[in-house]
Amino acid sequence: MTWAMRRLKAHAPPPAEPVETGDPERWPEVEKAMGTALPRDYKDLIATYGSGLFDELLWLFNPFAPAGDGNLVDERDRVLADYTESRRKFPEHYPLPPWPEPGGLLPLGRSDNGNELYWVTKGEPDDWQVALFGARSPSNDLHDGGIVRFLADLVSGRLETSQLPDDVLHREQHTFTKFD
After folding, report:
1. Does pTM top 0.85 for this prediction?
2. 128 and 120 in contact (C-beta within 8 Å)?
3. Cβ(138)–Cβ(93) below 8 Å
4. Residue in 93, 114, 109 with CA at minimum distance from that of residue 165
5. Cβ proximity of 118 and 107 under 8 Å
6. Spatial contact of 109 and 60, defined as CB atoms under 8 Å apart
């Protein structure tokens, strides 16, 4: 287990019985459907936490969720279509290309208040940055270290971003609530 996963679990414990953790044998099928390999930390996160909300706000797309909303493969196409359309209309505000262009954004999750999370697919999957976009805004921050480090920094009060509300960034206690 990585130091980031240990820190994440210490500040926002995973559920005793997570949902939609998937079968490790199905990751090749998921990656084939996605058209790319996925970061190991993301796979570990899904296996540990499954589907749910961090701080009753932020949730990640999960390839093992039922088809539709929240399913990584299904959300990829919907979110990318919206991003691509926004970029076409306002290229000066959306300089990062959409996936599958080299270094393109690949949808990862969202918040209940409209923030969006993407991987920046530059280099090997384990080296991908996380892009956090502001709620209904092209404003974004890039974060190194993968999604587990991003979440560990969030729940330990170390995340530097202007995209999330202060009451989320500076909570005394952070939570993960599994979906029912």
Report:
1. yes
2. yes
3. yes
4. 114
5. yes
6. yes
What per-residue confidence (pLDDT) applies to 165? 85
Cα gap 111→115, rounded to integer Å: 5
Q: How confident is the model at residue 180 (pLDDT cuts 50, 70, 90)?
A: confident
- φ, ψ (nearest 5 deg) of residue 70: 90, -15
Give me the amino acid identity at 78: R
Residues 6+ apart with CB under 8 A from 141: 131, 132, 160, 161, 162, 163
- Cα-trace Rg, the chain: 15
Q: Which amino acid is at 41?
A: D
pLDDT in tens, 22-67: 999 999 999 999 999 999 999 999 999 999 999 989 999 999 999 9
Amino acid at 32: K
**135: pLDDT strictly greater than 90:** no
What are phi and psi for residue 146, nearest 5 degrees?
90, 175
Angle at 63 between CA 20 and CA 165, to 5 degrees: 85
**Domains of the chain as residue ranges with CATH:** 3-178 (3.40.1580.10)
pLDDT in tens, 66-90: 999 999 999 999 999 999 999 999 9
Distance in angstroms (rounded) separating the CA atoms of residues 150 and 78: 24
pLDDT at 137 over 90: no
